[in-house]
Design goal:
Blueprint lengths: L22 H49 L7 H15 L1 H15 L5
Helix pairs in contact: 1-3, 2-3
The structure holds ligand ISJ.
Length: about 110
């Protein structure tokens, strides 16, 4: 006659509990979830690094365009072009895209505005 403990399933749950609900199964599930979080966070951090780098390059190039235009008496800003950019972000990203475009333009324009 087996002892009561030898009747316990190997995954740590009580024999009366459904598969996947035992202490071990829950611990394994939690470890997998933790690993998944770390994997996605690694990629998110990499994406953020790239975004920051791209925003910096964009701002630098934008300031060069602005400087070139102003060197011949033009304005710093060009509203028709900005509207095209705002629409592009809005169409690609939805309502929040418009706000992203406005922030990107603000970062690119520097403090002075026009
Ligand atoms: C860079 C330019 O100058 C300004 C900055 C813009 C930008 O950062 O995208 C867009 C229009 C202008 O207000 C441009 O005209 O292309």
């Amino acid at each position: 006659m087996p002892s009561p403990t030898s009747l316990r399933p190997a995954d740590g749950r009580a024999a009366s509990e459904p598969v996947g609900t035992g202490v071990r199964a829950q611990a394994e599930g939690a470890a997998e979830a933790d690993a998944e979080v770390l994997r996605h966070r690694d990629r998110i951090d990499e994406i953020d690094r790239q975004l920051i780098e791209l925003i910096r390059e964009r701002a630098e190039r934008s300031r060069m365009v602005q400087a070139a235009r102003m060197s011949t008496g033009g304005t710093r800003t060009h509203l028709a072009r900005e509207n095209q950019i705002i629409n592009r972000y809005g169409e690609a990203l939805g309502e929040g895209g418009t706000e992203v475009a406005l922030l990107v333009l603000r970062l690119s324009r520097g403090v002075a505005g026009r």
